[in-house]
């Protein structure tokens, strides 16, 4: 079969869905290809055992680690991509994140444009994803054109008490910018949303916002179970001539005017490498970044945590500096509520009685530090397998961040603080494998996320990020997709 749409978008996660929402009003013929399927309404989406222990959602796909050993990467392939299980945190990168910054582990390079260039796209992305928040609480927050579309999600009483304790300990907790309709979410079950699949029940994700906006137009359509196998460039001008995918045992080839690749930082790199495309710089698959991340559980036997969702505030006291005029350390934010079944699933040796006690008297945090771009941190192909050669960086800063937070929590009256560093098997905001820049010798994409090698190829997922910063990347991915959308609109018009 052969079809000729105007635009093919590969992947329906944050980058693909947002781009589709941007382009659909043009009337262009848009085809979205998603290898996964929609999570059904009756999925066990509120069952921690089915999510964390006997996953009903994780793919059975395996990758290879640096030693060549297979592992389950923890990525998800659904309509809406990984946003279906994300924590719905929709941060802007700080203004300083667009500038060169010195870290303990090295230099985080400057972007090819300043924060102000992306700011209007952040505004539009916050409107599309209906962000709840109050940026006036956070002194590191960059300038906004106006308030968030909705007020901040409120702290539950137990978390309001934790916030007060942290403030007395000298910290400055600030509301997380969140994409969640709290009343609608809780009407489907008394559970948190962080790590829980969204069956269109109140989370503002790529399916419920970006795709919903795109598919409200008759000129946009999506095909599921459509796994792209390769792309081909025309020999004369280098433009992408065709995209081939497999669906229900059938091989289909499409010949679009424009191709937008948004399959995720690892799969996007793998598809480009397999197709032999967009790599005159040699940078495809390189500069892989994955946040340094640690889960922390702060225990106080006098504290009773009856919170349901918990994930409402963050601490950026050490985001731009370490508090002693030293380099940045990172962000700390509340995790979604770690209930006893989650503790038991992640620590099988823990007796359930202990897990119940610990959960009842603890509060859970997530510490994030920037992973710096390194050309030897790579996604490569090993035969038909994807191999991940992650070179973790900036760990001294991360260890200091965890230490600072533990000290603050003890000052706040939590005598025991447990922590666990996430390893490379946990996808902590993977990015950077097809970085944008202004030099085609070192970057894959130009500042509009267009390939330097193929002028009708765009990459609009986290692959494009030249740095990882130390906040959740989803909103930045959406903003970049909207920026790319404007460039594609100009090309379609011409």
Automatic annotation (TrEMBL):
Superkingdom of the organism of origin: Bacteria
Pfam families, per the entry: GMC_oxred_C, GMC_oxred_N, NAD_binding_8
SUPFAM superfamilies registered for this protein in UniProt: FAD/NAD(P)-binding domain
Domain Glucose-methanol-choline oxidoreductase C-terminal positions: 386-481
Cofactor: FAD
Domain Glucose-methanol-choline oxidoreductase N-terminal: 162-292
Keywords assigned by UniProt, alphabetized: FAD, Flavoprotein, Oxidoreductase
Family indicated by similarity: Belongs to the GMC oxidoreductase family.
Protein name, per record: 6'''-hydroxyparomomycin C oxidase
Gene responsible for this protein: livQ_2
């Amino acid at each position: 079969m052969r079809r000729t749409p105007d635009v093919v978008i590969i992947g329906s996660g944050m980058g693909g869905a947002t781009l589709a929402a941007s382009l659909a009003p043009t009337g262009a013929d848009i085809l979205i290809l998603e290898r996964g399927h929609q999570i059904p309404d009756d999925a066990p989406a509120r069952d921690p055992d089915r999510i964390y222990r006997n996953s009903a959602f994780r793919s059975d796909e395996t990758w290879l680690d640096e030693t060549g050993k297979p592992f389950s990467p923890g990525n998800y392939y659904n309509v809406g991509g990984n946003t279906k299980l994300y924590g719905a945190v929709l941060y802007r990168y700080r203004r300083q994140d667009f500038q060169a910054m010195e870290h303990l582990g090295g230099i985080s390079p400057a972007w090819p444009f300043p924060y102000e260039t992306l700011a209007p796209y952040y505004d539009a992305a916050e409107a599309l994803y209906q962000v709840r928040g109050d940026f006036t609480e956070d002194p590191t927050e960059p300038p906004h054109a106006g308030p968030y579309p909705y007020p901040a999600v409120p702290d539950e009483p137990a978390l309001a008490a934790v916030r007060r304790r942290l403030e007395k300990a000298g910290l400055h907790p600030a509301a997380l910018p969140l994409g969640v309709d709290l009343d609608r979410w809780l009407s489907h079950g008394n559970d948190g949303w962080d790590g829980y699949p969204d069956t269109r029940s109140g989370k503002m994700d790529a399916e419920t916002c970006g795709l919903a906006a795109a598919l409200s137009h008759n000129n946009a359509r999506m095909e599921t179970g459509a796994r792209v196998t390769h792309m081909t460039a025309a020999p004369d001008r280098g433009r992408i001539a065709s995209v081939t995918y497999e669906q229900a045992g059938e091989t289909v080839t499409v010949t679009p005017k424009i191709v937008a690749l948004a399959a995720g930082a690892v799969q996007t790199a793998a598809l480009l490498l397999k197709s032999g495309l967009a790599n005159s710089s040699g940078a495809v698959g390189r500069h892989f970044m994955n946040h340094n991340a640690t889960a922390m559980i702060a225990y106080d036997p006098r504290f009773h945590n009856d919170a349901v969702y918990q994930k409402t505030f963050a601490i950026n006291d050490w985001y731009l500096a370490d508090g002693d005029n030293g380099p940045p350390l990172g962000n700390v934010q509340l995790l979604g509520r770690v209930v006893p079944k989650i503790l038991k699933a992640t620590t099988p040796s823990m007796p359930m009685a202990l897990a119940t006690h610990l959960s009842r008297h603890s509060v859970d945090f997530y510490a994030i530090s920037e992973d710096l771009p390194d050309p030897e941190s790579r996604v490569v192909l090993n035969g038909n397998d994807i191999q991940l050669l992650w070179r973790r960086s900036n760990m001294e800063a991360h260890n200091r961040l965890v230490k600072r937070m533990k000290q603050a929590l003890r000052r706040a009256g939590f005598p025991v603080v447990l922590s666990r560093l996430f390893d490379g098997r946990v996808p902590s905001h993977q990015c950077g494998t097809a970085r944008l820049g202004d030099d085609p010798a070192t970057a894959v994409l130009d500042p509009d996320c267009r390939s330097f090698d193929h002028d009708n190829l765009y990459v609009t997922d986290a692959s494009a990020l030249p740095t990882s910063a130390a906040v959740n990347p989803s909103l930045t991915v959406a903003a970049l997709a909207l920026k790319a959308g404007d460039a594609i609109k100009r090309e379609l018009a011409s």
